[in-house]
Design a protein that fits this description.
The chain is of the alpha+beta class. Helix content is 63%, strand content 11%. Strand 2 and strand 3 form a beta hairpin. Helix 2 packs antiparallel against helix 3 and helix 7 runs antiparallel to helix 8. It is elongated.
Length: 452
């Protein structure tokens, strides 16, 4: 029996929104930092789309015609892989320019398996076809953006340099218009200077406006075709609402557990300790030798009770967030947890980098609760914890060789584990056939820190 619990939620809203550009910014001309970045973005998008379009044409044409030959499949696969890479680059350019993140819409980061399985994985993903549409439209629009940039610069540079080269024109004059058979020219130096000034002001005011409109059109195209579709956005919004509710439920359940453990454990022992010390105090006041011996016995019992209460408080603190988790990381904390388990537990895995504190705490909680449940119900003779990070995903398997039959009932312990990791985009899967073995599989996003 395999049950999958939880939901992966991706595509969070970007932390920064696109900059608001007012008239004052547009009046600064085409040489501001923003205008230059826009021109660089438009040129990079055009060049990338143009080169990628040529390569995709060759790859699809040759790969499709040679599909029955050995070389056809690798060509098609190479074209689709490069298409996805080009789309990722465009999303990164939009992020760098506007500060707005375009969420990745792919079902999986990269299809795996043999070449045919990978090709089917790419082709069956609707996001691949949207990438292809974006490439075709972007290549066509890119030519228009290239012409816009060339025109802006040609008008600006031409207006500034006009007084220096107009004398090389035929008859040293600039034709303006032809009305009723009459041709009008600019031929004197004052009129040339006036014309250059008017052209420069025109280019200075028009250039930033055209660049802004072109940039918004190109980035809007990328957001609409390279991001999530509307049904996917609605689904993920619903998933976010669900995980928010799960996070509240998990926090409330954890609070009730801590209150119960304190009330049933340490609090009861401390009450008994206070009563024993009170009785010992009364006997010591009497001055009787027999009462003194009884008081000493009560103090000894109180001492044992203090040690037990401290042990229970330490166990409670370990269940919340042990010190070794903060000091030495997840793998060391899991090894310490395995050492305290009544079932022999083997921990296997070395992490290439340390996960974030939130991920470490959630993973430790899952392992702690899973081992506690196995010790109570599995009748196992051994257990294991496998830990690894692959493709920026932390994967942990907690298993045992017990009787199996674990189920994820609503409100049960396994459902609580799922609620605990759901706000971190984690998923929990349980495989527990009758007769065993039982495996609890947890996966959570675990991005590499920038220091690595």
């Amino acid at each position: 029996m395999i049950t999958t619990v939880g939901a992966k939620v991706a595509g969070r809203r970007a932390d920064e929104s696109a900059a608001v550009v007012g008239p004052g910014e547009l009046l600064k001309g085409p040489f501001t930092g923003r205008s230059l970045r826009q021109q660089g973005y438009l040129l990079a998008s055009f060049a990338g789309a143009f080169v990628q379009f040529l390569w995709m044409t060759v790859a699809l044409a040759l790969g499709g015609s040679l599909l029955l030959v050995v070389i056809g499949l690798p060509l098609l696969l190479a074209g689709l892989v490069s298409l996805r890479w080009a789309s990722r680059r465009e999303r990164q350019r939009i992020l760098n320019l506007t500060g707005e993140r375009v969420p990745s819409p792919y079902r999986e980061p990269g299809p795996t398996g043999n070449p045919l399985q990978r090709l089917v994985g790419y082709v069956s993903d609707p996001a691949t076809w949207r990438d292809l549409v974006h490439l075709i439209v972007s290549a066509a629009f890119g030519l228009a953006w290239f012409c816009v940039i060339v025109t802006v610069w040609a008008m600006t540079v031409g207006a500034v340099s006009l007084p220096f080269w107009y004398s090389s024109l035929p008859n040293h004059r600039i034709p303006l218009t032809h009305i009723d058979g009459s041709q009008y020219y600019i031929s004197t130096l004052p009129s040339i200077l006036a014309f250059a000034a008017i052209s420069l002001v025109f280019a200075w005011l028009l250039g930033p406006t055209v660049l802004e409109l072109a940039t918004r059109a190109q980035t809007g195209l990328g957001r609409s075709l390279l991001g999530l579709s509307r049904p996917e956005l609605d689904r993920r919004e619903a998933a976010l609402r669900s995980t928010r509710s799960q996070a509240v439920s998990a926090a409330e359940a954890e609070r009730r557990r801590i209150e119960r453990d304190l009330h049933d454990g340490a609090q009861q022992r401390l009450v008994a300790l206070a009563m024993d010390l009170g009785r010992a105090k009364s006997k010591l006041k009497s001055g009787n030798e027999e009462d003194s011996e009884a008081a000493a016995q009560l103090v000894a019992e109180a001492h044992e009770g203090v040690k037990l209460a401290l042990a229970e408080l330490r166990d409670l603190a370990r269940g919340i967030h042990p010190a070794v988790l903060t000091d030495r990381g997840l793998d060391a904390a899991l090894s310490a947890l395995a050492g305290r388990s009544p079932i022999p537990v083997e921990v296997d895995g070395t992490l290439p980098w340390r996960p974030s504190p939130e991920v470490e705490s959630a993973a430790y909680f899952v392992a702690s609760e899973a081992l506690a449940n196995m010790a109570k119900h599995s009748h196992a003779s051994r257990a294991w914890i496998d830990l690894e990070i692959r493709d920026d995903q932390l994967r942990m398997i907690v298993g045992d060789n017990g009787v199996g039959g674990a189920e994820t009932n609503p409100g049960g312990g396994l459902a609580g584990l799922s609620d605990r990791i759901a706000p971190l985009d984690g998923i929990l899967s349980v495989s527990s056939p009758i007769g065993g073995p039982t495996q609890i599989i947890m996966e959570m996003p675990c991005q590499k820190p920038s220091a690595y």
